[in-house]
Design a protein that fits this description.
The protein is built from four helices and four strands. With 102 residues, it is of the alpha/beta class. Strands 1-2-3-4 form a four-stranded mixed sheet, sandwiched between helices. Pfam families: PIN_10.
Length: 102
């Protein structure tokens, strides 16, 4: 696992989303975020041309709850990436994921 802060200063606050998405895809990483709006932005989706990005479906969670959602969904995330070369996914409760794009 890698944190964005390991590669970009200030947790990539000054880095365009399409830049870190493209970088993560080029490294073959599974990307995790809480920014649901990425799904509606053309440049970010174009950067996701060869990878998978998993986003929390609920924005009203504590940091511990966010981490637990990703942990609970780990098996579903790996199954999804094994079957799909590209996609934007929502991470739901009880370890579920659902493909939102394309």
């Amino acid at each position: 696992m890698h944190l964005i802060a390991e590669f970009y200063p200030d947790d990539a606050a000054d880095i365009a989303d399409e830049e870190w998405i493209a970088e993560g895809c080029s490294r073959g990483w599974v990307l995790l975020t809480k920014d649901k709006k990425i799904r509606y932005r053309a440049r970010e989706l174009e950067a996701l041309d060869r990878g998978n990005l998993f986003c929390l479906a609920s924005g009203n969670l504590t940091l511990d709850q966010m981490a637990q959602r990703f942990i609970d969904a780990e098996a579903a995330i790996f199954r999804a990436t094994d079957r799909n070369s590209v996609g934007f996914w929502h991470v739901l409760d009880r370890g579920r994921v659902t493909k939102m794009w394309p």
